[in-house]
Write a structure and sequence with these properties.
- By secondary structure, the chain is an alpha+beta fold.
- The protein folds into 3 domains: 88 residues, 2-Layer Sandwich (Ribosomal Protein S5, domain 2), CATH 3.30.230.70; 46 residues, no CATH class; 140 residues, no CATH class.
- It has 9 helices and 6 strands; from the N terminus they run βββαββααβαααααα.
- The chain is rod-shaped and about 135 Å long.
Length: 290
C-alpha cells in the first residue's frame, strides 16, 4: 500500500551542468502529472511523463526540474537576407547622394541584427545527465510513499479488525433478537386473551414468522463477513487499492445501516455505532492511499 503524498529530490553536478529535481504529490482521484522545467526541455516531456507514470497510478504529482548551465556554447548566425537588405539600401543612399563612396565592411558591422546568437543545446545529450537524478528523485519519492503507506495500512488493518470483531459480536445477538420477537408476540396475544377474544393459532404463527423475517439480520451479517474478507484480500494482494477499498467500505456501511434499521435491541446500538465509526475512520485513511 502506498500513500498518495510523498516527496523526493536529487541533484547532479559536473563542469557543464547543475541539475536539481524535486517531486511531491497530493491526494487526487485521478493521476495528474504537472511538469515544470525549462522550455527547451519540452521535447523530453513525453519521456519524463512515461517514467513518472511508472511510479504513480493515482494522485496529483508536481515535478520541478532546474538546470544551471555552468559552461555555455553559442552558435553565431549571420542573417544573410538582412545583410543584403542593408547593402541594397546603402547603394540607394550612395546613388541619391551622388557620391562614389564604396560600401565597407565596417559600415555593415554598425548595423543592428546582422548577427544572432543562440545557445547550442542537444536535448538528447542533456537527457543523459538528467535521467539519473530524475530516477533517483522518483525512487526517494516512492520510498517515502511506501513508508507512509505502511503506517496507514497498519492502522486500516487495525480498524477493519474492529469491524470484524463487532460484526461477530452482533451475530451473537441473533438468537436474542428472535427471542425478543417471540416475547413481543406472546405479550400481545396475552392482551388479546385478557380481552376474551378467541385466538387463531395459525394467525399467531403467521405473525411470528413475519416479524422474524422482518427483523432477521443473518443475511446482512453474512454479507458483511464476505465484504470484510474481500477487503483483507485487496489490502494483502494488491498495490493500487484506494478506490476498491472505498467501494467495499460503502457496501459494509450499507449493510450496517440495514442492521441498525432492523435492530430491536438496545444492546446492539453501541455495536452498530462502533462499526460505523470504524468504517468512517477507514474511509478517511483510504483517501490518502493510491
Amino acid at each position: 500500500m502506498k500513500s498518495m503524498t510523498g516527496y523526493g529530490s536529487a541533484e547532479y553536478r559536473d563542469s557543464n551542468y547543475h541539475i536539481s529535481v524535486d517531486i511531491k504529490s497530493y491526494n487526487n482521484r485521478y493521476c495528474d502529472i504537472y511538469i515544470k522545467s525549462p522550455a527547451y526541455l519540452s521535447p523530453l516531456e513525453q519521456r519524463i511523463n512515461k517514467i513518472v507514470s511508472g511510479y504513480v497510478k493515482r494522485g496529483k504529482v508536481e515535478l520541478y526540474i532546474n538546470i544551471l548551465e555552468l559552461s555555455e556554447e553559442f552558435n553565431i548566425i549571420l542573417d544573410e537576407n538582412l545583410v543584403k537588405g542593408y547593402v541594397k539600401t546603402l547603394h540607394n543612399l550612395i546613388n541619391l547622394a551622388g557620391t562614389n563612396e564604396k560600401i565597407r565592411l565596417s559600415h555593415l558591422l554598425r548595423m543592428d541584427g546582422i548577427f544572432k546568437t543562440e545557445k547550442s543545446r542537444d536535448v538528447d545529450y542533456i537527457w543523459e545527465f538528467l535521467k539519473p537524478p530524475l530516477c533517483k528523485a522518483l525512487k526517494d519519492f516512492d520510498e517515502s510513499r511506501i513508508t507512509e503507506g505502511t503506517a496507514t495500512e497498519d492502522n486500516i488493518n487495525y480498524l477493519i479488525s474492529l469491524v470484524d470483531r463487532d460484526v461477530s459480536l452482533i451475530e451473537t445477538y441473533v438468537p436474542r433478537i428472535e427471542e425478543k420477537i417471540k416475547e413481543t408476540i406472546n405479550e400481545r396475544f396475552k392482551e388479546v386473551i385478557d380481552s376474551e377474544v378467541e385466538l387463531d393459532n395459525s394467525r399467531i404463527l403467521s405473525e411470528t414468522a413475519l416479524l422474524l423475517v422482518k427483523f432477521d439480520i443473518n443475511e446482512e451479517i453474512i454479507r458483511m463477513k464476505t465484504h470484510i474478507k474481500h477487503f483483507n484480500e485487496i489490502v494483502k494482494n494488491e498495490v493500487v487499492v484506494g478506490k476498491k477499498l472505498d467501494f467495499v467500505c460503502q457496501e459494509l456501511n450499507r449493510e450496517i445501516n440495514t442492521i441498525g434499521s432492523k435492530n430491536i435491541l438496545v444492546e446492539l446500538d453501541k455495536l452498530v455505532i462502533s462499526v460505523k465509526d470504524s468504517l468512517e475512520k477507514i474511509r478517511e485513511q483510504i483517501r490518502n492511499v493510491e
